[in-house]
Amino acid sequence: MAMEAETITMLTMGFSITIVISLIIVLWLWYKRKNSVNVWFLVQGAFLALSFYYILEILKGRPEISAGMLSEENSLSIGKAGVLWAISMVSMLCGIWQLNTARHKGRKG
Fold first, then answer.
1. How far is Cα 106 from Cα 16, in angstroms, rounded to an integer?
2. Is 84 exposed, middle or buried (0-12, 13-18, 19+ CB in 10 A)?
3. How far apart are CA 90 and CA 44, in angstroms?
């Protein structure tokens, strides 16, 4: 895919910085509150990072793959990225659900 030379580097750096900051915050909250629900957010980050890997693979282009097979390989990578992203979103929703359930435990109505 045609784009400026530094685009992939900037995208990777931006994503990496965001994931590392998120990881630090989730680990800090886990340490501080001793709440196992934070595992869901770590799982979410891991699957999101894997999804990013497959999208980045497409954006970089793969000269080692013949032109006839490239669209099939890209389609497969998009599918993998989509499934991994969906798993990351389900993990995040499980974490939110558990946080909400734990917060309202003991309350009536």
1. 39
2. buried
3. 8
Residues 92 and 42: their CA atoms lie apart, in Å, by 9
Are 85 and 47 in contact by the 8 Å Cβ rule? The answer is yes
The token duo for 68 is 């006839």
**In the chain, what are the domain boundaries?**
7-102
H or E segment to which residue 49 belongs: helix 38-60
Instruction: Report the predicted TM-score, pTM, of the whole model to 2 decimal places.
Output: 0.81
pLDDT tens digits, one per residue of 65-82 = 777 788 888 899 999 999
Residue 47 to residue 87: CA distance in whole angstroms:
7
Judge whether 3 and 61 are in contact, CB under 8 Å: no
